[in-house]
Amino acid sequence: MKTSLPVVTLKGPPYQIGYKHGKMARQEIEHNLDVYFRRFKTETELSYEVAIGRAAKFLAVIDKVSPEYAETMKGVAAGSGQEILDITALNVRYELMYSQFSKIGLKPMPKTFGCTAFAALPIAVDNGHLMMGQNWDWIPEVKGLFLKVRNENGPDILSFTEAGVVGGKIGLNSEGVGLLINGIVSSKDDWARLKKPFHVRCWEILRSKTLGRAVKVIAQGQRNCSANFILGQQKAKGSGKVVDIESAPDAVCEIGPDRGAVGHTNHFSNPKILGVKQVVDEERLSTIQRYRRIQKLLNDTVRTGHKLDLAEAQSMLRDHYGEPESICRHNNLKLPEYQRYETIVSVVMDLYSKRFWATIGSPCSTEYQPITL
User: Fold this and answer.
1) Nearest 5°: phi and psi at 128?
2) Which is nearest to 310 in space by CA: 263, 368, 354, 230?
């Protein structure tokens, strides 16, 4: 099936970028707010009043640590006709949800969120370009957007985000920097630290001109919640760098590529190094299975000396081994509807040509469509 992708081009100062985002995606933002406030209550035991109270505290943090991000959020609120604290809650939903997952993770409630991501260095790719790919598995009802952002101050950015969320979570910029992410839950995750939020860090990574600067965005200071970031940069054909950074609230761990490639899912490779305990639930079975599978696919291709091409990268993200908890994720019908997750966007990125190939919906049933920065 071939479907058109929701692409929005934004330019100007932060407030103007946010305002157009809000105006162009008004219905999608309203829908996402309905979805998340319902999920906050049913899945993470957060009432609307508590979620908004925590969002208010985060707004004060964002105003201080990233005023441009705050201005963009305020533009989104004005353009979409929503309250700023509702939009803030949407932008810090990672902290609101993942710190709750940490607290309630030991209860017998299965959580099947997750993502599978990988990157291959130019020496491992047939055209000599750094390739990065990811399936983003999440709530099926959430509406996503692809943003082309022409910044007045900073690199231009092509990214995928949720409608209403300022910081793109999968993306690349005009300096050849690329970003993939995986959510992780640890025993120390806590929104109450009130540090720079996850999506603000993603936004700053994609505004970075160098890989070193992007790494510092993750590593500097404490973090509210754990996460994994795969970062890459390519500015010249045939050369490029990739690093995987597992981040916990108080520490980070860098993982380099293995024989030209790196892959990651939703668990720490060595939580003891980071001073945390992994929150064990049903998701852990899924993340380990998907991790083993992406490693096998990389072992059977680039790590044998084979040069990866675009079709093969897309095929990896369509893989159904272990379905429904496979790389290409599908609803587990054994679970209640509100606990079902699936692949809702799939992206392969070429950092040298500044191009996405992407699907909205499972890549096994939807053709990849190109988007160029």
Assistant:
1) 75, 20
2) 368
Do residues 155 and 175 make contact, with C-beta atoms less than 8 angstroms apart?
Answer: yes
pLDDT at 280 over 70: no
Question: Which of 27, 274, 262, 47 shows the shortest CA–CA distance to 163?
Answer: 27
Sequence-distant (6+) residues with CB within 8 A of 229 are: 179, 180, 181, 205, 218, 244, 245, 247
CA–CA dist 197, 172 (Å, integer) = 20
End-to-end CA distance of the chain: 24
In angstroms, the CA 2 to CA 9 distance is 22
Longest dimension (CA), the chain: 55
Comparing C-alpha atoms, which of 266, 229, 276, 262 is closest to residue 341?
266
| Token couple for 163 | 């409608």
* Encoded tokens for 42: 């049913």
Identify the structural domains of the chain with CATH numbers, from first to last: 7-104 (1.10.439), 114-372 (3.60.60.10)
* pLDDT average, residue stretch 308-315: 98
- pLDDT of res. 325: 81
Q: Which residue has the higher pLDDT, 3 or 256?
A: 256
128, 241, 245 from 238: Cα distances, Å = 5, 10, 23
Q: How many CB atoms lie within 10 A of CB 130?
A: 28
Distance CA 217, CA 203 (A): 10
pLDDT at 107: 44
**Does the pLDDT of residue 77 top 80, yes or no?**
yes
CA-based nearest residue to 277, from 189, 182, 181: 189
Asked whether the predicted pLDDT for residue 321 surpasses 90, the reply is yes
The reply to whether the predicted model has a pTM over 0.70 is yes
Those residues with Cβ within 8 angstroms of residue 56's Cβ, 6 or more apart along the chain or in another chain: 85, 88
pLDDT digits (tens, 9 = 90+) for 188-226: 999 999 999 999 999 999 999 999 999 999 999 999 999
Q: Which two tokens stand for residue 102?
A: 């940490």
